[in-house]
Specification:
Number of helices: 12
Structural class: alpha+beta
Radius of gyration: 29 Å
Strand content: 35-45%
CATH topology of the largest domain: Rossmann fold
Strand order of the largest sheet: 10-9-11-12-8-13-14-15-16-17
Shape: elongated
Distance between the termini: 71 Å
CATH architecture of the largest domain: 3-Layer(aba) Sandwich
């Protein structure tokens, strides 16, 4: 191991060493998205020197945690602890070449900036996950962090890797593919009943088939796949899997760029007329691909004749209405009982928006202001928080055989109001043309309301 440690110590944060006949030894170093290639020294590598390196690597096999991932007379793929070593010989390569790769960093989920919506999705729903990105941008590092995150939640995690180089702990068993029967790996894993299988990396047709088959069998799947753009990860499935099955196989795409979470996509299928089609008779199943964080539709996928068409949608122009809508959606998703009419938005200048909410909600939001991070980033604005005092009005309530009638007053006609008992939010309701709210006594919310009527003053929020 002294040789490997010495080669990797010349430059800071070295990812790989490249040894080739007739060239000096080189190292790739830097950070994801910003790699540089430099000479370790000026000595030209001879065939004899490379064979000495190979013999030394074989010597490590006697004492270290090492095994062949793949081998024949023309190449060797070796996993030596956290080093992945690929050796090629002529005539497969024109000269002898040795490539040694190691992870540059180990990270956990807490090291990533994970939006609350994505965290909730990983905890509650996402089971067909693709981790996509260009080579060297940190896909496998994030996959390792996600595997540990699931294991910490007492999930049974297995992996399929070739080679097995994810940095994981002893709770997670790492499998490679069987030489003559890759499908057998999927069959065996199904017998083990894992909660999640991490598939690193998906490249060949059989890989796509195994991922899809296990996902349709009910296993949570996390696939690592090369892609230069987030949509490319989905498109690589289109030629291999029936279009209608795609949303059942993939529900979340996490695109990693420069070592960080860059984009998150979600998929759902609807029956509609594709964007740009005017004839309603052309309605068909359409897969909508959305930016998961800000709810923006990005692509539509559908069958047209014999072809599968992927149409990019023009990004919505940033307007006052789209910005205000995004802020309101974010608030309502995170705070139950906060309605549109309780949210006041005011543009202070081109770069600042003031958000005013009732004081009881303002106290909660102040401690969790990160819910606005994606809006501030996407719209390039700053959000400031303000509060106002809750204003209530005592009202009369009447019970008939079928309805609970709330006398809101004529000033509320055709308005949606917030109904409270004391400080407890109950529901939103619309006031009719008589200034009344009629609630069916058969509904569970009305029954809950009736039980609380005598417990405190009945109030209606004026906003």
């Amino acid at each position: 191991m002294d040789l490997l440690n010495q080669l990797f110590s010349v430059f800071n944060n070295t990812m790989s060493i490249h040894l080739r006949e007739q060239l000096p030894p080189m190292a790739k170093y830097g950070v994801p998205g910003n790699w540089e290639l430099g000479n370790i020294n000026d000595e030209i590598s001879s065939k004899e020197l490379l064979y000495e390196y190979i013999d030394l690597i074989y010597e490590y096999m006697r004492d270290e945690d090492i095994f062949f991932e793949d081998e024949n007379a023309l190449y060797k793929v070796i996993q030596l602890k956290n080093y992945r070593i690929v050796i090629t010989f002529p005539p497969f390569s024109d000269v002898i070449e040795i490539t040694i790769v190691r992870p540059t960093i180990n990270r956990v989920m807490a090291d990533y900036k994970v939006d609350r919506k994505l965290k909730n999705r990983l905890d509650e729903r996402a089971e067909g996950i693709l981790i996509a990105g260009s080579p060297g941008h940190g896909k496998s590092t994030f996959a390792s962090a996600l595997a540990i995150y699931f294991a910490d939640k007492f999930k049974i995690i297995k992996t399929i890797e070739k080679p097995r180089d994810l940095q994981l702990d002893d709770r997670i068993t790492q499998f490679t593919v069987l030489p003559d029967d890759i499908e057998k790996v999927g069959d065996l894993l199904l017998l083990m009943r894992p909660d999640y299988v991490i598939f690193d990396e998906i490249r060949k047709n059989n890989d796509f088939e195994i991922y899809s088959d296990m996902r349709l069998s009910g296993v949570g799947m996390v696939g690592v796949i090369h892609a230069t753009k987030p949509i490319d990860a989905i498109q690589r499935f289109l030629s291999r899997i029936e279009l209608g099955l795609i949303p059942n196989i993939i529900d979340t795409v996490i695109f990693i760029n420069n070592g960080e979470i860059d984009t998150v996509l979600s998929l759902n299928m609807v029956v509609k007329t594709p964007r740009g089609f005017n004839d309603q008779s052309l309605a068909r199943p359409v897969i909508e691909v959305n930016d998961f964080i800000n709810h923006t539709p990005l692509y539509e996928m559908f069958s047209f004749g014999e072809q599968i068409v992927v149409i990019p949608l023009k990004k919505n122009r940033v307007t006052k209405n789209s910005l205000y809508k995004e802020i309101a959606i974010t608030l309502k998703e995170n705070y139950y009982g906060l309605s549109d009419n309780a949210i006041n938005l005011l543009r202070i200048n081109n770069k600042t928006i003031k958000v005013s909410v009732p004081e009881n909600f303002a106290k909660l939001i102040k401690n969790d202001f990160s819910i606005f991070d994606h809006i501030e980033r996407d719209y390039k604005i700053k959000i400031v928080l303000d509060s106002y005092e809750n204003k209530y009005k005592n009202i009369d309530v009447f019970q008939t055989k079928k309805h609970l009638i709330i006398k809101a007053g004529r000033e509320f006609i055709n308005r949606i109001v917030d109904i409270y008992i004391g400080e407890k939010f109950i529901m939103n309701a619309k006031v009719d043309y008589n200034g009344e709210i009629q609630l069916s006594r058969k509904k569970s919310t009305t029954k809950r309301l009736e039980k609380l009527l005598d417990s405190s003053d009945f109030k209606i929020n004026l906003r």
